[in-house]
Amino acid sequence: MSKTHTEKNPSKRADGEYVTLIDHSSDKQYNLSVLHGTEGPKVIDIQSLYKDTGFFTYDPGYTSTGSCDSTITFIDGEKGILRHRGYSIENLAEHSDYMEVCYLLLYGELPNAEQKSDFVHEITYHTMVHEQLLGFYRGFRRDAHPMAIMAGVVGALSAFYHENTDINDPEQRRMATHQLIAKMPTIAAMAYKYSLGQPFVYPRNDLDYAENFLHMAFSVPCEDYQVNPVLGRAMDRIFILHADHEQNASTSTVRIAGSSGANPFACIAAGIASLWGPAHGGANEAVLNMLGEIGSKDRIPEFINRAKDKNDPFRLMGFGHRVYKNYDPRAAVLRESSHQVLSELGIKDEPLLDIAIELEKIALEDDYFVERKLFPNVDFYSGITLRAMGFPTSMYTALFALARTAGWIAQWKEMIKEPHQKIGRPRQLYLGSQERPYVLLNKRG
Ligand code: CMC
């Protein structure tokens, strides 16, 4: 086996710069160090703020809070930039493949030919799941949502592969990491097969990662199934585009779950649960449901007006992002990819794509969306491509989870290796009652 890259962990730069916090109630001043990353905004180091000043900070939704340092992914939301380990997402989507991107996220460098072949071999030879796990699936109702099954089955991996749950052993960490990446397509495809009532399809080692997934999802034992290479490549691209996205809700969930020392399978199950929500990964399913509900181009203005109405909870799904205040670079790649897939499949009239393109055009010109910098995000075009490939909407978020596992596990691994890693434990601004005497039941009104 060739030697995999070992990650370098650069130290944070303080440079002696600081900001001063003035507490006018006590006339005290505190100097807070300013840290410089390789790129991105400067960061005020408040780690000793409570100890030094007695203050907590207040930042619900963490809009201004950096929870860790990381060398994996860089996003400049104003410019619409996404890079993994310094490589732009456009370059990776164009020239790389998902296996390389997994290696890059995990080990910090693109693999050389030998490292890539060893990595692909190891992933390929861990794609089968323990046969007893099949019985686990049969415990779910047939109409269970694939994300419910994924959260349950991935959590159960810690019971099936408990020999790799000692997070302090680097070899066990490596094994668990590779097992997760290898088994996710099998687990997701099995969730899909179970919902259809079709037999589970075993992985095939002669196919690449994305092709093997399509084979497990769409083939049946009674006939031959050839993976269309254009669809295989489109699937691989979707995996690349969803592989990591720095400290989003599900990744932060994985990190915070892992910060207590929980095992990696349990942490990824927690990430899957967090991803499921419609404000996060569940948006791809919600986009298709919304396009279906709009139904025709002439109804777009009605839905745009609803999205702008503060008394209506409706939002344009697939629009807006906490970090991107520009076109999401992943959406741009997916827009092109969706056209390639539709053309390969000879789908000339896809009413939902027509509605999506028109909706995007109208929203991008509307003052409400322009002023708030609400652009299409990754989920806007992924559903259209997946629908053309034959996936039902309920599988979209499961595919997101499959692809994001590489990012989650790379971020988890980075956190575990951090020498000063601490359990994640935010504080709060308490607004409840102050101490009051207990009232006996017979004295309560
Ligand atoms: N439709 C209509 N208005 C919106 C939308 C939308 N999709 N997104 C944000 N706004 C408005 C919002 O009402 C607020 O307006 P105002 O300033 O007048 O109160 C303003 O834009 C800022 O929104 P916010 O909710 O404060 O922003 P946030 O950073 O907390 O939320 C978001 C980000 C992604 C949750 C949100 O844009 C949203 O709900 N989008 C739709 C769901 C979606 O597509 N999610 C996928 C995100 S990308 C993939 C992923 O991360 O998994």
Quick rundown:
The chain has 445 residues and is mostly helical.
Secondary structure: elements and pairs:
Layout lengths: L17 E6 L4 E8 L7 E2 L4 H5 L19 E4 L4 E4 L2 E2 H7 L2 H10 L5 H12 L8 H6 L7 H15 L9 H27 L12 H10 L10 H13 L7 H10 L5 H12 L7 H12 L5 H9 L20 H16 L6 H15 L1 H5 L6 H12 L6 H22 L28
Antiparallel strand pairs: 1-2, 2-3, 4-5, 5-6
The structure holds carboxymethyl coenzyme *A.
Tell me the radius of gyration.
24 Å
* Strand line-up of the largest beta sheet: 1-2-3
Uncertain segments of ≥5 residues (pLDDT<50)?
none
Structural class: mainly alpha
Q: How many strand segments?
A: 6
Largest sheet: 3 strands, antiparallel
Q: How much beta, percentage-wise?
A: 5-15%
Instruction: Give the CA-based shape.
Output: globular
Give the cofactors and ligands. carboxymethyl coenzyme *A
- What's the overall average pLDDT, rounded? 93
Report how far apart the termini are.
73 Å
Helix content: 40-55%
Topology as H/E string? Answer: EEEHEEEHHHHHHHHHHHHHHHHH
Number of helices: 18
Write out key terms for the chains shown.
445 residues, mainly alpha, three-stranded antiparallel beta sheet, globular, binds carboxymethyl coenzyme *A
Report on the architecture of this protein:
The chain is mostly helical and 445 residues long. It is 49% helix and 6% strand. It has 18 helices and 6 strands. The strands form 2 sheets. The chain has a 3-stranded antiparallel β-sheet with strand order 1-2-3. Helix 3 runs parallel beside helix 18. It is globular. It starts with 17 loop residues before the first strand and ends in a 28-residue tail after the last helix. The relative contact order is 0.13. The site of carboxymethyl coenzyme *A (CMC) has 19 residues, from helix 17. Carboxymethyl coenzyme *A binds next to helix 17.
